[in-house]
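[Meeting: bench + compute handoff]

Bench side (C.D.) handed over the final construct sequence. Compute side (W.E.) agreed to return the predicted structure before the next meeting so the bench team could plan truncations. Sequence as handed over:
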Amino acid sequence: MEHLTELERQIQNRWADGYDAIFYERPVGIGNLRDFREYLDRKITQRFVDCTVAERKQLRILDTGCGTGQLLSQLKSDGFTNLYGLDVSEKMVQIASQKCPTISFTIGPFDSVPLPIGQFDVIMGTEWLHHVPILRPVFQRAYDLLAPGGFFCAMEPHNDWLFQQVGLRQSVMTLLFGPLLHFVGFKNRNKIQALSELEGDRGYTSWHRHLSVRELREAFEGIGFEVEMERRHTLVTYFAGQLFNSRADRMLYGLLRWLDRNMIDHMGRGGYLFLCATKPRHPRSGIRGA
């Protein structure tokens, strides 16, 4: 596993300088982060219902795979005071530290770097589990680090989404939306080329994949978490690689997101999975949703 971690570190270091421009300045990235933040806030309110707003702001929150610190910066601005960041890439942490100089950061892999056991109320992760070849040690680590009643919250690409599950569905989508997709791609050709150059020939690790509910269920089994999952973002996921930050892109994103929220996501096969795994105050296990 050490050589895999080192490869991931090198790749993320290469991504660091352009990471915000590629992910957080695009309508898809902005929308995903906003949706995950709403999901996180909802779970904090539900799980710590007996706490006052002021007490919730003092929860001990660890952002694993924090990248350039975009989410931590938002939480800090909203008054959360006990924030911690962790990432395998020192260049990512350097950028995050510049954004959030008062937040404590640690460099290293989540499943092995020294951290206080049983001390965190919330552990969160946005789109990094799909870089991990074996998930179970990660979930076990999260369980060990959480205080009783705390939870692990994540957002991940989902491999069971409506237009990816069956080739015929993908073909129909291409037939219906292909001309628009090519138009958007042509309009953004320079940005798409820049993204390809940034990825290079090893932009994604060999285990970079969309996760399935089955794989997640098996990885959580027997650890002791109470797990809930939600599926979202079907059409937006299909167009994600083409939507940059022009006015037309933002308008198209708004339309696709409206269709997702009001029609497609209700079919239950969204392109992203939102999951919340709670450590019970008294040990027991189970999985709900999905």
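W.E. noted at the follow-up: Confidence is low (pLDDT under 50) at residues 165-170, 200-204. C.D. will use this when planning the next construct.
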